[in-house]
Design a protein that fits this description.
Length: about 1050
């Protein structure tokens, strides 16, 4: 035997001779009756869709007489007519054969491919495990009739022990346990004896052709099929006997009609993977295939777990249609397969199991053979039907044959089909051939078929690339036309708005049928789907929608339509909010449309929405609703989110649309514009609103026009002046120092009868115009305030003169203000006060009090103010005291002169002693800077014993001196150098030893130069001594290492600015 999986042959031959009358026997047929050519892209898509979904590949195999095949988890088993079992693991493609002693009836394999049960025609049972060391099956010593089906426990041990349910040809169901251990026989509940437990026997002893066991949410779900019944069994996890409790059994039944065969009653399932639960089922009966969806979950015992049952008939006639309606009526516990939308069309029923629905499906029934197939399988969207002479792939969605392969004339008769859910492969077997069915992109036509069935949500779910946008557009067009024909205009408008159909065509469509509400829905949907760049289209649609909304609201303003009015009004406001950015471009147009219909509430709502508070406040003020206007103003100082960046491009868009969009004023500008009116009519509330605003939001200077319109005479009694109240808040609480604010507050204080607030304000700091304040106070006769102002202007003479007319104490206070700065002026002012007091009252005692109040005044200063014939007895004591003070002052001056004379004599003595001071220098002593002998050059010796060469010390000091000092030292050095050259040219000391000359110079320096100050020296030498003495004073002022220079050098960096170039030269 040669089984070669690498050598395959594509089955694409067609045979047209047939045995079934009226049956189309074409080799392969793809249904292309669904035209999608609404644009060029869809034409290309249609050409792509003509690629085959199904392909049969023949496997080169020379073994004759194959009768059946099973495959799971990549492990295949086949039976032959001469009683062979062929085992094959597709992973290694090495088959081995097992010879059985009698005819094989059926073989069964669990989902893992490890356990295999073999049933013989003589009712003998064999078992084989893939990991068994012996490849020969072991016979089981039990009798269970002929096995028709086996259900495997999904929670069992996939490798060793597995609980199974066995269905026989006599309607019996057994429970047992299969074990992969080397004992090789059945075990039940861990026992050692080969025991079978009978669970149930069905009525009429019909063979149990199919079983499926699933475990979900601590429940067992068992589906059992016979040729005429489909049972739904649910029970809690535990004993399997609970499943067959008579109260837990629910089943579907069909009439025994049609042409039965041995395959009737088969139960097949489809799942997307071996790890997921089955999603759909198919039950083969004599008249067709009953199929539907499976739902595992919250069902209770006695319920069904199928959904959307449908029927594929092998023979399309009225009798089958009646049978179909009977099945639909009996399935009371299943959910109906509704369309994607639950709205019921007018004059019809939306359920998929209604007679109208089955009549529609019957019209699409294909010309199938009138007999059941010998085997079948399910894919996601197709029935895979195996007849003895042909293979047919039939669409579940429209019952059209999408693929057919005819085997007549080839000497091959097909027997069965097997599906491997783990490896996602499908296999067919014939007498002498093995085929693999390849499925490519099975769901590519699903969107179109669901669309034709009216299941639009499913169509959208299965629409995918390529041309995804075109597919969705086609689905939405079909869905919209469907609802339009059913007069469900609102739904139709929603889906038309998602399509790319011509805008004018759709709008006229709704206008012609008088559906303005549907037109509104279409425009809203269309507006939502427009892209960002289509601003012109957006503005046009928005304008139209505003007109529609306002017109609709006008027709519903009656009290009887209150609910409808509120609903439409809510929709309109939601529309304004959603498309605010678009509407703000045509703000003026929007306002004109709304106002033209007199919709004041909507107008105010839109103005508030786009923050056009100027318009809202103007409206309230015009209608004398001042408090409402003020309440809007009070919200403007709250922080708002930053505007989107797209608004920065709005001016360009506006220009492109030819619309002028005036920029909104700033919130504080609205205060300055409307507060003059508000402060005039509601001053207290307006002032309170100003005070409550956040700091810095309002500029008090700009509110002065509002304050000037305030008339305090109209204020109710007991209320303070609101203008003064606000300005006091700005000055005292906010610390405002603006001159206009203080000037206006001063002008208000001046008009008050009480002088206390004005005086307090003047003494609190000068932030007002003094000259302006002086004019106001003079005009209003506020003399005391004028005194304060004169004092602030430092015009103390005028202040004292004016104070003498008001309050003499105030005059004294102003006179004392210059006591520390100008005693002469202070004395002058006090004399003026004393003169005023003496001439006014002539009271000598009060005049004498001035002498005590001001220490600058003497008795002789005020005597001239008294009359010539004043009796001296009243102030004789003051005169005597004054004379005594003068004598004491003279004695103090004499003592001071004596002390000064003694100090001068001591200073002269110290100077003489300083000239005779000297120091000692060793002969080997070195300069503390250059470390060379100090006696080789002119040097400086300090009291701290530090000694420096003159040039070394000058060089170091130059780093710490100011530019002027440096320049002066250079000039002195040049002068001294020139004088020395002149002396050498005269030959006066030309033969003198330089060292002796230097020492002489040094000694002369230490002794203060007394020996060199000879009167007979010429002017050049005297000038040299002067220059040298000045240089010595500058250089020898302090020691370089012990003086202030060393202390100040701590703050200097190690590397100076003049050394940066040197530092850079060190860089590598």
């Amino acid at each position: 035997m040669n089984l070669n999986f690498n050598s395959t042959q594509l089955m694409n031959e067609n045979f047209n001779d047939g045995d079934y009358s009226g049956y189309n026997n074409g080799g392969m047929m793809v249904n292309n009756n669904h035209n999608l050519n609404h644009n060029g892209g869809m034409n290309d898509m249609r050409n792509q869709m003509e690629d085959r979904i199904f392909e049969l590949e023949k496997i080169e195999y020379n073994k004759d007489g194959i009768t059946s095949i099973v495959i799971n988890n990549g492990k295949m088993a086949m039976t032959t007519r001469n009683n062979y079992i062929i085992r094959l693991d597709l992973a290694d493609s090495i088959p081995y054969e097992i010879k059985m002693n009698s005819d094989i009836y059926k073989i069964f394999c669990d989902p893992t491919g490890n356990h295999m049960v073999i049933c013989m025609t003589n009712e003998e049972i064999y078992y084989l495990h893939t990991q068994s060391t012996s490849r020969k099956p072991k016979q089981l010593k039990i009798k269970v009739d002929l096995i028709e089906s086996i259900a495997w426990d999904p929670a069992g041990d996939k490798n060793n022990v597995q609980t199974i349910l066995i269905g026989t040809n006599k309607g019996k169901v057994y429970e047992t346990v299969v074990s992969g251990v080397e004992k090789g026989y059945f075990e039940y509940l861990g026992g050692n004896a080969p025991i079978l437990k009978l669970l149930h026997t069905f009525d009429d002893f019909e063979p149990v052709m199919g079983m499926s066991l699933e475990r979900v949410q601590n429940k067992n779900f068992l589906m059992v099929s016979t040729p005429t019944r489909l049972y739904h069994l649910i029970a809690q996890i535990g004993s399997y006997e609970q499943l067959f409790d008579r109260y837990h059994i629910s089943f579907d039944i069909v009439p025994e009609e049609g042409i039965p065969n041995v395959a009737c009653g088969q139960l097949k399932f489809f799942s997307k993977s071996h790890l997921s639960l089955p999603q759909s089922y198919g039950w083969l009966i004599s008249t067709g295939i009953r199929y539907g969806d499976l739902i595992y979950g919250a069902q209770n015992p006695g319920d069904k777990f199928t959904n959307s049952p449908s029927m594929l008939f092998f023979k399309a006639d009225q009798d089958n249609l009646n049978i179909n309606n009977t099945i639909s009526g009996n399935n009371s516990n299943s959910n109906s397969n509704n369309n994607s939308n639950s709205n019921t069309p007018k004059g019809g029923n939306s359920g998929s199991n209604t007679p109208n629905h089955y009549q529609q499906l019957q019209s699409f029934q294909p010309a199938l053979p009138p007999i059941p197939p010998v085997s079948f399988a399910l894919s996601q969207f197709h029935f895979l039907l195996v007849y003895e002479d042909r293979f047919i792939a039939l669409s579940k969605l429209n019952y059209q044959i999408v693929y057919e392969q005819d085997f007549r004339g080839r000497g091959t008769r097909l027997h069965s089909i097997a599906v491997d859910n783990t490896e996602r492969s499908i296999w067919l077997c014939g007498d002498n051939a093995l085929y693999e069915l390849k499925i490519t992109d099975e769901d590519r036509d699903a969107w179109r078929l669901y669309m034709e069935k009216g299941q639009f949500d499913m169509a959208l779910a299965y629409a995918k690339e390529p041309y995804l946008a075109e597919k969705r557009d086609k689905i939405w067009q079909t869905q919209a036309e469907h609802y339009f024909k059913e007069e469900r205009y609102e739904l139709s408008a929603t889906f038309f708005g998602k399509t790319h159909k011509v805008f004018e065509e759709i709008t006229l469509k709704f206008i012609n049928v008088g559906q303005r509400d549907a037109l509104k829905t279409y425009l809203l949907q269309k507006l939502t789907n427009l892209s960002k760049g289509q601003e012109t289209q957006k503005t046009i649609i928005c304008t139209w929608l505003i007109e529609i909304f306002i017109s609709k609201l006008n027709t519903l303003r009656d009290a009887s339509n209150k609910d409808r009015y509120n609903k439409v009004n809510s929709e309109f406001r939601q529309f304004l909010e959603n498309f605010k950015d678009t509407l703000i471009i045509i703000k003026d147009i929007t306002f004109n449309i709304i106002s033209s219909h007199g919709a004041i509430e909507e107008l105010l709502f839109y103005a508030n929405l786009i923050e056009d508070y100027e318009r809202v406040i103007s409206y309230h003020i015009q209608h004398q609703q001042y408090e409402k206007a003020l309440s809007i103003l009070t919200t403007l100082d709250k922080p708002k989110p930053p505007p989107p960046s797209s608004q920065q491009q709005q001016p360009q868009k506006n220009n492109r649309l030819g619309v002028t969009n005036v920029q909104q004023p700033e919130p504080d500008e609205l205060y300055y514009k409307f507060c003059p009116i508000l402060f005039h009519f509601i001053p207290y509330q307006t002032c309170e609103a100003w005070i409550q605003t956040k700091a810095g939001f309002l500029d008090p200077k700009k509110l002065i026009p509002s304050l000037m319109r305030y008339d305090h005479s109209k204020t109710p009694p007991g209320q303070p002046n609101q203008a003064i109240r606000y300005l006091q808040y700005c000055v005292n609480k906010q610390g405002n120092t603006d001159r206009p604010v203080h000037n206006y507050l001063l002008s208000l204080y001046v008009k008050q009868e009480e002088d206390g607030p004005l005086s307090d304000f003047l003494n609190d700091g000068v932030h007002f115009d003094l000259k302006y304040a002086l004019r106001l106070c003079m005009r209003e006769k506020k003399l005391k305030a004028c005194v304060y102002i004169y004092s602030a202007m430092e015009l103390y003479e005028e202040a004292v003169d004016l104070a003498l007319l008001v309050d003499i104490d105030l005059a004294k206070e102003n006179a004392d203000k210059v006591r520390d700065t100008d005693e002469e002026l202070c004395k002058k002012l006090w004399l003026r006060i004393a003169e005023h007091q003496v001439k006014k009252d002539g009271n000598i005692k009060e005049a004498m009090e001035f002498l005590k109040a001001c220490s600058l005044l003497k008795i002789e200063d005020i005597l001239p103010f008294f009359p010539n014939f004043t009796v001296i007895d009243d102030f004789k004591e003051e005169i005597c005291k004054s004379l005594e003070d003068y004598n004491s002052y003279i004695d103090e001056l004499k003592a001071a002169m004596d002390d000064a004379t003694k100090s001068a004599q001591q200073i002269r003595k110290d100077i003489q002693n300083l000239r005779n001071k000297y120091g000692h220098v060793r002969g080997d002593q070195k300069c503390d800077i250059c470390n060379y002998p100090v006696l080789t050059k002119r040097f400086y010796l300090f009291s701290c014993k530090h000694v420096f060469h003159s040039d070394c010390l000058i060089t170091q000091l130059m780093k710490h001196l100011s530019p002027m000092q440096k320049q002066r030292i250079r000039e002195l050095e040049m002068n001294i150098g020139h004088n020395h050259i002149d002396l050498l040219s005269q030959g006066g000391q030309h033969n003198q030893n330089p060292v002796i000359s230097n020492i002489s110079s040094i000694l002369g320096n230490i002794s203060g130069g007394s020996n060199q100050a000879q009167g007979d020296e010429n002017e050049n030498v005297s000038q040299e001594d002067l220059d040298r003495n000045e240089l010595d004073r500058m250089v020898g002022k302090e020691c370089l290492y012990c003086g202030d220079i060393m202390i100040r050098s701590i703050e200097q960096p190690f590397i100076g600015l003049d050394e940066i170039e040197t530092l850079e030269s060190w860089e590598i």
